[in-house]
Amino acid sequence: MVVGDIATGTELLVIGAGPGGYVAAIRAAQNGIDTTLVEKDAYGGTCLNYGCIPSKALITGANLAHEAGNAEEMGIHADPVVDMSQLRDWKSGVVDQLTGGVEKLCKANGVNLVEGTARFKDENAVRIAHGGEGQGSETIEFEHCIIATGSRVIQIPGFDFGDEPVWSSRDALEADTVPERLVVVGGGYIGMELSTTFAKLGADVTVVEMLDDILPGYESDVARVVRERAEDLGIDMHFGEGASGWRDEDDGIMVTTETEDGEENEYRADKVLVAVGRSPVTDTMDIESAGLEADDRGFLSVDECRRTDVEHIYAVGDVVEDTPMLAHVASKEGIVAAEHVAGEPVAFDSQAVPAAVFTDPEIGTVGMTEADAEEAGFTPVVGQMPFRASGRALTTNHADGFVRVVADEESGFVLGAQIVGPEASELIAELAFAIEMGATLEDVASTIHTHPTLAEAVMEAAENALGQAIHTLNR
Amino acid sequence: MSSQNLTIVQAVRDGLYTEMNLDDEVLVMGEDVGKNGGVFRATEGLKDEFGGDRVIDTPLAESGIVGTAIGMAAMGLKPVPEIQFSGFMYPGFDQIVSHMGRFRNRTRGRYTLPMVLRAPYGGGIRAPESHSESKEMFYAHEAGLKVVIPSTPYDTKGLLISAIRDPDPVIFMEPKLIYRAFRGEVPEEDYTVPIGEAAVRREGTDVSVFTFGAMTRPTLEAVENLEEEGIDAEVVDIRTISPLDRETIVESFKKTGRAVVVHEAPKNGGLGAEITATIQEEALLYQEAPVKRVAGYDVPYPLYALEDYYLPSVARVEEGIREAVNF
Amino acid sequence: MALKEFKLPDVGEGVAEGELVTWHVAPGDEVTEDQVLAEVETDKALVDVPSPFNGTVEELLAEEGEVVPVGDVIITIREDGDDEETAKAADADADAETADSETAESDDADDGSSSGGRVFAPPSVRRLARELGVDLDSVDGSGPSGRVTEGDVRAAAEDDGDGDEPNGPRTVQSNGKSATAKRDEGTSASAAASAESADREQTLAAPATRALAKEEGVDIDAVPATEMRDGEAFVSPDAVAEYAQAQREAQAADAEAVAAEPDAGAATAEATGDAASEPAPPETGPGAGERVPYKGVRKAIGDQMQRSKYTAPHVTHHDEVDVTELVELREQLKPVAEDRGSRLTYMPFVMKAVVAALKDFPYLNSQLDEDNEEIVLRDEYNIGVAAATDAGLLVPVVRDADRKGMLELADEMNEKVEKARNRKIAPEEMRGGTFTITNIGGIGGEYATPIVNYPEVAILALGAIKDKPRVVDGEVVPRKVLTLSLSFDHRVVDGAQGARFTNRVKELLEDPKLLVLE
């Protein structure tokens, strides 16, 4: 349209408006930095649009329906009917509200928003191919850059997401009907969350997992609680099997699996959901032109301020190697990078990163397990409180699971916690705070916790570690 | 009063908007300036605000654009015609030089032309022929014309308003390479920056570096780099090509005894020659080295594969300054 | 038990380093206070180094034979007892069974091994540490269980002294003509203190005048200005030419020592040293008298002498040599030389003898590079030959004397001395010498204490050749005797070496046939 290429200059260019990118952009703008945020798809990224938010919305819907329909014990008799497409629309409304909110916040903070796809020209400039109503492309020259392009689902051979019966997690969340039979490949947290959700919505769910238990990365006693409940919900789980392919049948599809020894199995299904992990998006931006190189899995290595090998280019979120692929980690990294650009003395020095799994029951963990603590050279002391002993838990009729607190025996510093049970995702926050503050068991145990709440169980676990629990027997 | 963070092209627009609000005689005309808001968005939204009588889309006819504006100005309006690229001024050259620049003289002062001829100038934007011209000296050579070239958003709005308010014609050339390169604080209200005054951007003692427009950026970068070599350079932004602020130039030269001129226009007959002559005449005894001109080469502006070799780069400016200092 | 470092102590006499000769302990040994840990040799003495602690030797950090600067840590010792830090450990948090381990374990902040990379400090404190440039791993936490508090961090920051300064913009020195001044500094030599120099920041001059100044090697800001223009000092081409001439004269005197006045150095040096604080001299009485300016060549020579004598500790070795055979030889060769157009004096022979001896004793042909603490053994043999002129003592240099034949040496030397006497000699022709020979015998006199020609290390003065009675084969006979005075810089050359060098020269002059072999 216009003859010539006039570059636009900006101080900080953020590529990707997910929880890493938009948070970084807003924080940078708050610090007076002229910031430009480029996003090719939707504000809020995977988390807001295809991940965290929609999945939790669906989970809430599924839980509600399931709770209502299974409360005869309490004298509640109901048989809820779920209109999946309406549930989906409600979920989309929530997503839109949040996405719009992100856009407004960015604008309100003075962030320049550009719709388009960025490719590096050199280490100080990108070329943006405009999306939406655009003028072709433009060049943006930047002094600093934050790469926050996130990750994409991993596709396995034989299961092309383009095929109609093959679902990625994103497809699953867009479902407007509940499949009768659902095979879930992958027993990690995404696979288990969605299995639980669809089982509660009435699907006949089969989980196929290559390792010998669901939720690798969590201790076996934690995973066991979830697995047993999943079994109660009617979910079939098969371990040591890897999905090898699928084929169309008259009635739905047939999913084939293979064990290590070559034994084959087949499962009938209407949809097969593949949830085996995510890989970083670093191969679409010509990062080599900026002098950057990703490792062979596509991750970028960074220092404690989130700088890459090119000093003025940062990376945050799922593209960063060796950090958990979690939205809140991306946000914290985004803040660190933005503040570092602003010249603040910051570093990513969080002592513990909490994580949550929204299965039934929920899991919430932070910091070290007992084994981790020993390996690190501490002498761990452990305290536990089963929810069966929690008054509040009993009143919610969900009393499976426990709170476990790990501390250093000699100093009393809280080192980690694992919670499996109701509201574990919320309860873990207190312990994350304790670890960051360098609190001791005594600090946690001596803080009054409201009664009757689930949070009390945290206090009790701490007291248990100190050998003075009231509501459970001490070791 | 509050201020905004604007790019240079946004400052142009803000200047036009501010002055059009204050003075009903001010109007804008040119190709694509109205409905389209200008190919660089320099006149965006003005037609909606002020209507088609004051924001006029003209035919593709530079001689007509200038000529019509001359007529309007003679009749008491304050037109701000735009030529889309300074290289397109040539079809209107006769109007500009023979008439725009001589009206006051011809009418013995009874008629003056309070008009501002705006045009983006300069290269570095990967454009085809005629879109990268830097021929400010053609117009500086005509006494009845003023030629102004800003290099910052603040100066852009201030100088534009001064130009609009000037009873005589001003050619306002805008450095399009840096139209959007950076932002600066620009007050919302009207204010002026005086025409005919250069600005010392950086004080120094070893050498005076004179430059303007888009070349102020590589110059300032070069000067910063040379700090490490112990060279303390003074940088003067010329701002008004004609009438030239000889006083500031000579004052700076007397302090340092050495000078470098940086401009993208070709060396032969460029502003560097005028500055050198001025220094010779007025400060010969202070001179410790020949005046070094870092300029475009004396060739037609090349197509863009060679553009970066043609334009004074940071390295070329550094070399030039070193030459002057080490003489 | 705390790990203590022990640094090499100052053993007195301003000694800066010592060689660790022998260790008397090994890692793992128990040591008591005052027990000797090692023997260290300083300049002149072998010194015992005692232990200040009771404890166990942890690590030896210097090797036997290593030269260690004072203040360097040479050994670490794990000191006995001392559990003060552990008193800060947590109060009755832990179970009964862990009560004893409390005293044994120091807190986490102290002992890195058990932290596993963990830092026990709240986020706000961690940020404060970064801001103040404090390394948290090195801070002892005063909070419960050794948690690091804000106060701990602030205290640690203060202990660091200035701590870290934030990265601000680099300040640029702009002190007048920074870059350009550097160029000019090189042009005028140390003898800038010649007849009236100016010292301006800025000078007006036509470009042609500036070019002239550059050609003449003169700093235009130093040229005395002839007029004012435009309120600034203005310099004409004539002023530059005049000043350049004066500079040349001063520069030419940029060398040599005067042998005629022994110990003149001490007296005059004291006088010049106190010059600044001297009160105005009286008009009559003691101190009154004709006042002759001390400047130009005289002053240049004075500065040189002062510099040489007051930097290098001078020792002069006196000896005499029987040159009867040399005199005969010269008599024989003189007409042969004349036929070849050369005037042959004794100097070429002495030069040859000296060069041969320098090859055997290279330290006398060296320079002391004090900055780098190195003695540069020169690989050229550029012999300076002192000449008395109207302007004072000048020393033309005959380069590469080792590669020139006798007659060549004679010719060159004669030519240069002639030029020097006519004040036609160029400064380059008087630079680069590695050894100087001065002949005082021409005027008369036998022995002297010549001053070394800085930056050389030695100088040889020749007295007159006189007939003196000597004992040869038991009989007293008249012999031709030449006296030698060799002064040298005792930092580089010891007395014994100086004597040996002189002996070698003597050997070659006593029996000049030996020169043929060199």
UniProtKB/TrEMBL annotation, chain A:
The active site is a redox-active disulfide bond. It comes from Haloferax chudinovii. Binds 1 FAD per subunit. GO terms for molecular function: dihydrolipoyl dehydrogenase (NADH) activity. This is Dihydrolipoyl dehydrogenase. Residues 11-334 form the FAD/NAD(P)-binding domain. Keywords: Disulfide bond, FAD, Flavoprotein, NAD, Oxidoreductase, Redox-active center. Its EC number is 1.8.1.4. Belongs to the class-I pyridine nucleotide-disulfide oxidoreductase family. Coiled coil: none annotated. Its cofactor is FAD. It catalyses: N(6)-[(R)-dihydrolipoyl]-L-lysyl-[protein] + NAD(+) = N(6)-[(R)-lipoyl]-L-lysyl-[protein] + NADH + H(+). Residues 353-462 form the Pyridine nucleotide-disulphide oxidoreductase dimerisation domain.
UniProtKB/TrEMBL annotation, chain B:
Residues 6-181 form the Transketolase-like pyrimidine-binding domain. Its EC number is 1.2.4.-. Signal peptide: none annotated. SMART domains: Transket_pyr. It comes from the Archaea. GO terms for biological process: organic acid metabolic process; sulfur compound biosynthetic process. It is an enzyme of class 1 (oxidoreductase). Keywords: Oxidoreductase, Thiamine pyrophosphate. Its cofactor is thiamine diphosphate. This is Alpha-ketoacid dehydrogenase subunit beta. It comes from Haloferax chudinovii.
From TrEMBL, chain C:
It comes from the Archaea. It is an enzyme of class 2 (transferase). The keyword Transferase applies. Residues 92-111 have a biased composition (Acidic residues). It comes from Haloferax chudinovii. Gene3D superfamilies: 2.40.50.100, Chloramphenicol acetyltransferase-like domain (3.30.559.10), E3-binding domain (4.10.320.10). Residues 120-157 form the Peripheral subunit-binding (PSBD) domain. CDD domains: lipoyl_domain (cd06849). GO terms for molecular function: acyltransferase activity. PROSITE patterns: BIOTINYL_LIPOYL, PSBD. SUPFAM superfamilies: CoA-dependent acyltransferases, Peripheral subunit-binding domain of 2-oxo acid dehydrogenase complex, Single hybrid motif. Keywords: Acyltransferase, Lipoyl, Transferase. Its cofactor is (R)-lipoate. Belongs to the 2-oxoacid dehydrogenase family. The keyword Transmembrane helix does not apply. Residues 239-278 have a biased composition (Low complexity). Its EC number is 2.3.1.-. Residues 78-293 are annotated as: Disordered. Residues 3-78 form the Lipoyl-binding domain. This is Dihydrolipoamide acetyltransferase family protein.
